[in-house]
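Subject: Predicted fold for Adenine DNA glycosylase, 349 residues

User T.R. writes:
Posting the sequence so we have a shared reference for the thread.
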Amino acid sequence: MSHFAPLIQAWYRQNHRKLPWRETKSAYKIWLSEVIMQQTRVDQGKSYYYKFVENFPTVQDLANADEQEVLRLWQGLGYYSRARNLHTAAKQVVNEFNGVFPDNYKGIKSLKGVGDYTASAIASFAYDLPHAVLDGNAFRVLSRFFNDATPIDTGQGTKVFKAYAEEVLNRENPAEFNQAIMEMGAMVCKPKNPDCENCPLSDSCLSLREGDPKLLPVKSKKVKVTTKYFHYLIYPSKEIQLIKREGKGIWQNMYEFPKLELEERKLKSEVNKMVEDKFDVKLLKKISEEKHILTHQHINATFWEVNEMLHDEKTVKVDLETINDLPLPRLIERFLENNAMLFGSDGVK
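User M.O. replies:
I've generated the structure tokens; pasting them so everyone works from the same file.
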């Protein structure tokens, strides 16, 4: 397999995208980019990367930040536990590593929310250490190149493909090699439409020779998806009534409208009765309905106008001028963008 690394690295030098985190050796900035890019596409991810670097130029700045500010900047990316892990890990660097980002795999992996892939990526990109990365793109390239149908979402799959990655790794230049295999997966060895004609590995790719690249990689597990019905209660006023979402689960410590959360669909009369019993207000009319799809949860949200403000001491009241100072789920942010006139404004600023 001695030709694997030279071929993909030569391709990478000619074809790679210029990205800001590829132009730095700062472990902190590389770490930020890796966590952000696990959430989104490159074009959207760049704007989040710039926001975080601008607001938190150093790991100390991030550690000292208020969690609400971190969540607000992360808003729209989803998986908010990763933002909280990012914040916790920054505090670890300050408290356990004297404010200096760890410079070895073991130290990096000890940070909250950092697994093998992220630790390997940072170790190789920032410190040129010979650790092979194994993200979704690398899994795809390796499973097709070796024509191996071992499910990648199993312990055995991780072991098998980690061995492949270590076998082909260029230990003299691990940073460029790791960038190259991930870029190959993103630009050429794509999930549904692999561009085999322009792949530098096409002459030696076993799945192209012996099988069908599009059938790989294999996953064994299907994500169990639950369906929830959220009934949001809104009293149109210049003061917008919100409540902080507490406890574990989605949107922890973020703000949304007061709501009734149900496991199944109900008639309006049934919902109205439950709302009256719980909140002592009445539904007047339906404002809108939205579907919000998360990895493990499908949310059917109905936004209702109610006859008065809720009498709940846990709620906070804000106006459209200051609402963006609070971390909001994208579902709520989108509703406000589309229905700002309810609150005496033409749009969210």
